[in-house]
């Protein structure tokens, strides 16, 4: 909505804002200098550790390599190979599949947990306590959390032996570990909290009288959820979505451990290239991944305006 | 006189743990009347309103609307509608969708509910703004939308929770005229919670003055103002002096006290010019303060300053005996 259409009829004339006049030019200049100085440390850090490496990656992606040497040159060779190979597309598709399935599960879980915490837990003490409980898994490292699934899900693992002893199954389930199932399970385990936090945060900002107003208008619990809570939680969902999508798209270690090196995603492709010292090829794959991820985020940001949440 | 539209509270009680918010309140709200629930903050007026609306469950007692017991019914099934203090408009919906919200919840199809919303918006003169979001409206406009949204279900009783408190004084006076006009046109009951006695006097056919979880006094506005039953009522309604005489305590309207040649001796403490009147505070012997509202013309014919000795007089007939 353009600002000029926001005219408030019947409101009173307000005097124009009077800005304090600066009398000395020196004062003005020093304010600018202070501003630049304050912004400088972060700018330097971002430049050195984010912008430069990315430029480096882009540059290297145009170099060529043989088995034993890397040749600085300008060549489309890496991209031609990458885009021409159907392995790339299959792996990219697999990466997208992981991202979408993980997103779908974490968004449902995250919304449910956040909704419970925000609207059903009345006492603030309990709210804080339960929220901290959600963060407990983060007290150990990602990799340890992942590996701890292996004895649980394996052929002789806890899950299989329990199911066998209950008589639910006759022989161990093979798909529990080293499968897409276990990869997605680990992703969900690792990243659900990144969905819970922003959604919970947005929900806590919803005015509780809106729920009462919906109730007053005859909305059932589900109708209130669908027509009031969900639309107002959209920015939080979107932020969580960006977290989860980028984390899953860029992951390689979870896929490696949990699929037992049987599935691949783009991260694994890059890791393989690096292992073979094929840096130019790894760089080209990275650039492709970066572009795809940025495109996804660009689309998401067009769908929902998250600026008011930040 | 009872009509079919009456709302009756019968021994209504609300407890929060050990605190009693509303203590055994019984009252009959006549159909089609404008009633103000008045009282200081924490007196139980809002809890009473919320129990009538169904947003708070009654600990004891019952609520009967149009001959039907509604105590246990959900808010939307009672025939009441509530307008919230902060308006509680849905920020993600346009004005039209806000007004049509309850119809949408009932499953009314879009064309019908938009038509009905259009009628309501016309009633509150907001048709032009139907496609705006609430954040693009001023406070007064948001209030009109909230009003339209509450009225869209044709309630028998409209409950208003301090509806004017968020507006600036000028707009408040204008909206209060409109509320009264709307109530007269619609012919339904309005129950309006407020802590402002001027608002209550201006609007109400009947005032229910609450204090400490109970009804202190209820009746037509003029009766409450002219015949306060207790000292609390006299002081809360303002414009009254409470005079302790050997016969007991009396309420004396400030505008019936005048400066005179012979009367009770007093010393002027403060003089406040209020436009049509001058508020003169004087101290009588025995440390009693008396407020006199003296017509401007009379006062400036013979002006007084703080510290001056004056004589105050009033007609014996204007003394109103207080019961407590």
Automatic annotation (TrEMBL), chain B:
InterPro entries membership: AAA+_ATPase, ABC_SmlMolc_Importer, ABC_transporter-like_ATP-bd, ABC_transporter-like_CS, Mo/tungstate-bd_C_term_dom, P-loop_NTPase, Transp-assoc_OB_typ2
ABC transporter domain sequence ranges: 7-237
SUPFAM superfamilies: MOP-like, P-loop containing nucleoside triphosphate hydrolases
GO cellular component: ATP-binding cassette (ABC) transporter complex
Signal peptide: none
Coiled-coil features, chain-numbered ranges: none
Keywords: ATP-binding, Nucleotide-binding, Transport
GO MF entries: ATP binding; ATP hydrolysis activity; transmembrane transporter activity
Gene3D superfamilies: P-loop containing nucleotide triphosphate hydrolases
Keyword Transmembrane helix: no
GO biological process: quaternary ammonium group transport
Protein name (database record): ABC transporter ATP-binding protein
